[in-house]
Amino acid sequence: MLLTSVVIIIREVLEAALLVSILLSMCRQLSVRQGWFKWGALAGLLGAVGYGQQMGSISSAMGGVGQELSDAGIQLLIYLCLLYSCQKLVFHFNHRQPLNTTLFVAMAVAIALAVIREGSEIYIYLSAFHGNQESRLGLYSGAVIGLGIGFSFCALFYYWLLSFRPRRAVFFGSMLLTLVAGGMILQGCKMLIQADYLPDGQAWDSSSFLPEDGLPGQLLYAMVGYEATPAPAQVAIYVFAIAAMLTTLTLRYRAGLKAASPIEQ
Amino acid sequence: MSKLMSTLGLATVVALLLLAATSVWAEKPSFNLEIREHLFTPAELRVPANTKIKLWVYNRDSTPEEFESYELNREKVILGGQKALLFIGPLPAGEYPFFGEFNPKSAQGKIISE
Predict the structure, then answer these.
(1) ipTM over 0.95
(2) Which of B15, B17, B36, B101: disulfide with B68, CB 3.0–4.6 Å?
């Protein structure tokens, strides 16, 4: 029980924790306020309990694939929020101007949705096995250890990203956000395949040298949505999502540079 | 900028719809799995190769379980006393292990595609 509980909690916490640490460190580097974070986290925690409680009716909706469709919807929304927030931050790096509330809302929504998705599963797991007297100690010690490891990882990552000079940190942070956002699309597509809204198949099999159930595979899964045997449709949409984000970020970086130096060339 | 964003959003939606339209909507063969006392029955499920199937997983326990398989790329939470639907395949012939993430030691099984 203890080990199972640690593994489940870490797997769920890592993804949201990584997102939080990248966004917070980028804000710190750019002297953007971080107050939005607590609202996002709070909304996420409340949402996770609500989503977890409604899981029964969500699952049976849409002919039995409601869980997949709502998951995919959440993941697409996270991608869009990250795309919007990241291009704003990249522009802001070159051309400092007062920021609008939309950016803070987008970042808070991204965090809230990530916490809802991961937190609801933790809620379902903990509330289901809470009733079992014998395993309760293992369940909760496992959960505490899992949360501890997840949050330590988040803190380490946050300070590591702060240790870079701003230009490098913004570049590195943007690349990481692109990978995390792409991972959301990859996992969202997996849900659509499971619901039979996208065709299944196997583009390649990298499970022999990087298995999904090994430690590096698990870490990569939690951080960037790694799949050892992705479907062709998943890969195609993933590549499109990453390319769209990279293009947007590059254009906005240049636009920021141009706006910062109004002298005609 | 917002124009570029909305164009990108629209393109994504169109791409998804096109892909959804190409998947086959014909009735698929249906298979059942049961979870009882944190065990899958049958522990080995034989399905036709290269055919998309509907897999209904009935959770007869009072506790939830997460059906998970790295080989099949599937994961789905099934609450206690509920059933869940997963579409699987078309699978090349072979063995595809799955397990229950909430009880990984006991809840194990495999799909044999032949």
Answers:
(1) no
(2) B101
